[in-house]
Amino acid sequence: MPDLKLSSQLAHAREHLDNDRADQAVQVCLRILETFSRCVEAYVVLGEALLALDQTERAADLLRRAWSACPGDRAASLGLAAVAERQGQTALAEAWRERAAELGAKSATVDDVSAPLTRPALCHAWLRQGWYQLAARELSALLTESPARYDLQVALAQALWQSGEEQEAAQLSQQILETHPHCLLALLIAGTYWLHSEQDAPARDWLAAAQELDPENAVAQSLLGAASPLPPRSARLPFRETDAPPLDLPYDEEEDLSDDDWPDGDMFTPFADCSMI
Fold it and tell me: pTM score, two decimals?
């Protein structure tokens, strides 16, 4: 039994899933969601587990919710591809697989234009390598051609923020929140930018919502670093009596101890003056 830290429990659920114990992964995820009801990672693992158990409709609902909060989650995109495939929507399944491939693109150099990568995939690779201004320019160009691409809007907000265009990133994040109110990156960017300003109250609400989605603030730390208003947390599940390991005594209660069971007298020194007792 792993410890009750949220990260440990999520890893435990993932281990069950990877070892063909989807039903046990479901139970772990459901327990997590009893305490952290909006934990995005738990939604993703639970959705994958339900897919493995052929509960496609329930899985689809959870994975769509997770993707709406984190369009950069590759596992959610792959899960939605599997859902579409099972539902006979071949073109949609291929589109989701393409989204997942874009997120998982390998590193690329600025001059490596001949690499077999789509333009969105190249932008994600640049983001991972820290070429934020380059990514922002290309993402802006892509959005003029496909303005409804929500995932690219979120990627642009990230690129703008990390390239120092914080006000523009915050404004874009607020626009994103109008249609996707649970977008984790947009909540973090808008909340951080407007904290201690004329929009302090909504900023605090946005940050609180972000922490609900990511209870250990791992994404906040990755995006914002030391400047994050949300510190690292060690979120834990509440203890249950069934979590206690069984009491494993070395002998039965009615069993008598032999002379050999007693400790060696040389292991301790008795009081020299018994009158002290």
Answer: 0.83
